[in-house]
Each structure stands twice: as structure tokens, then as C-alpha cells.
């Protein structure tokens, strides 16, 4: 390597040097802190592709955020349907046809709130598991309040 290093420190396999400096993203020697002058032109191409990848990595959070909120939309739709059918079955005995009037807005409100809580508080891997647990918890509480405590 053509830097300020002397002796065995300046002897490096060319492939190893190219790979190391392309991973680092610059031509500065780690030992003497001088720029290495004899690196081949291929390092520049590797650096430019590494720089492009860095630019794409900075763009990932936006796409990841979009994906998380699109998951939230799907979660709202699915949980709205689940809450609606649960509430419909729970209320149809007492309210007959008016159960739809109560079940629709309540199920939508519950699903929006639970989905926002799931997406914002829980990590990406566990959103669906947490949402399922949350659904059964809410349904259990609603069933207890309606059936056992007789809250209408």
C-alpha cells in the first residue's frame, strides 16, 4: 500500500485491501491515517455502489413507515369485521334489529383505537399477535360486562 506505513504494515494483498477499503467507504489507512494512493479504480465503483446503498438505506424508514401504516389499515378492516360480528351476536338477543346501529360504530371505534395502539406500541413482529390478544381481551371484558354484570 502506498501510504506512510513502513515494513510489513505496507504489505497487503491487493484483493484484501480493495475489499477492506470498499467496506470502509474511504481510502484512509487505519494505521497511519494517510490516504492510500495505489488502490485500483474498481474501489471507486464499489464505493459509488456503497454510497447508493447508503442513500437507499436512508429512504427505507419512509417505506417501512408506509408499510406499517398499510398494515394498520388492514388491521382496522379485519378487527372492525371481527368486533362487528362479535357485538352483533352479543346484542342481537336483546336489541333485535337495532343491534346493527350500535355494533357498527362501536366496532369501528374499537378497531381504530386498538390498531393505532398495536402499531405504535408493539414491534413489527408482534403486531398481529398483540392485536389478537387485545381482541380476545376486549371481547372477554365486553362479554362479562354484558352477560354477567348485565350492563346494556
UniProtKB/TrEMBL annotation:
InterPro entries: Znf_RING-CH (IPR011016), Znf_RING/FYVE/PHD (IPR013083). Keywords: Membrane, Metal-binding, Transmembrane, Transmembrane helix, Zinc, Zinc-finger. The keyword Amino-acid biosynthesis does not apply. Coiled coil: none annotated. Residues 1-39 form the RING-CH-type domain. The chain crosses the membrane at residues 69-87, 99-121, 127-149. Pfam families: RINGv (PF12906). SMART domains: RINGv. One of its GO terms (molecular function) is zinc ion binding. This is RING-CH-type domain-containing protein. It comes from Colocasia esculenta.
